From TrEMBL:
Record's protein name: dITP/XTP pyrophosphatase
InterPro entries per record: dITP/XTP_pyrophosphatase (IPR020922), ITPase-like_fam (IPR029001), RdgB/HAM1 (IPR002637)
EC annotation from Swiss-Prot or TrEMBL: 3.6.1.66
Organism: Neorhizobium lilium
Cofactor note text: Binds 1 Mg(2+) ion per subunit.
SUPFAM superfamilies, per database record: ITPase-like
Binding of substrate, residues: S13, H14, N15, A16, G17, K18, S75, F163, G164, Y165, D166, K186, H199, R200
Function, in words: Pyrophosphatase that catalyzes the hydrolysis of nucleoside triphosphates to their monophosphate derivatives, with a high preference for the non-canonical purine nucleotides XTP (xanthosine triphosphate), dITP (deoxyinosine triphosphate) and ITP. Seems to function as a house-cleaning enzyme that removes non-canonical purine nucleotides from the nucleotide pool, thus preventing their incorporation into DNA/RNA and avoiding chromosomal lesions.
Active site (catalytic residues): D74 (proton acceptor)
Record carries keyword Magnesium: yes
CDD domains: HAM1
Subunit structure: Homodimer.
Keywords: Hydrolase, Magnesium, Metal-binding, Nucleotide metabolism, Nucleotide-binding
Coiled coil: none
Length: 214
């Protein structure tokens, strides 16, 4: 494992919600970071078939363009009744013909697909959010950190916090969706709690333990 010996990195993302969450996680650690969107880097085509492949594509593109280490996230909602869909295509389900993304439309697609499968009871609507962080260096070296959180798909959507599919994901053991939780509740461990809750916070916890701690 390669340790990160700089506090200056690039957040390899053009997704405003994802950039905000990663900034909230790395901020307390004293990082100076700019996003690929701020630096006006071209958004690479995510042609991978796994979260790891797509995370690497984004991180390596930003690392090579900036000459700095870059941290990317590839994440998605994996639903058992839909054979793992939308999975790595989670963002694609939200795409409109004009290239914009509409996550209300995406959530409705998920609900329609579950209805087609007759998945109406909570035990039939299980799934997980997956996040894979990739830390890449300009020389091509990469490190990966995977976090997952189990839960069920709720309907109708609840809450306006977070972004993406958060309003329909109810983590296991909770009565609220991610859309009803504050950032602090989702990140958990940043407040000194024993365990990260969200998939991204769990992946980030591994990143800190592996690449930052002595």
């Amino acid at each position: 494992m390669r340790k990160l010996d700089t506090k200056t990195i690039v957040v390899a993302s053009h997704n405003a919600g994802k950039i905000r969450e990663i900034a909230e996680l790395i901020g307390p650690l004293g990082f100076s970071a700019k996003s690929a969107a701020e630096l006006k880097f071209e958004e690479p085509d995510e042609t991978g078939t796994t979260f790891e492949e797509n995370a690497a594509i984004k991180a390596l593109a930003s690392a090579k363009a900036s000459g700095l280490p870059a941290l990317s996230d590839d994440s998605g909602l994996v639903i058992d009744a839909l054979d793992g869909a939308p999975g790595v295509y989670t963002a694609n389900w939200a795409e409109r013909e004009d290239g914009s993304r509409d996550f209300q439309m995406a959530m409705e697609k998920v609900e329609a697909a579950l209805a087609d499968r007759g998945a109406t009871r909570p035990e039939q609507r299980t799934g997980r959010f997956v996040s894979v962080l990739c830390l890449a260096w300009p020389d091509g070296h990469t490190e990966f950190f995977r976090g997952e959180v189990e839960g069920t798909v709720a309907w109708p959507p609840r809450g306006s916090q977070g972004f993406g599919y958060d309003p329909i994901f109810q983590p296991q053991g909770y009565d609220t969706t991610f859309g009803e939780m504050s950032s602090d509740e989702k990140h958990g461990w940043t407040l000194g709690q024993p365990q990260a809750l969200s998939h991204r916070a769990r992946a980030f916890k591994l990143f800190v333990e592996t690449c930052l701690e002595a």
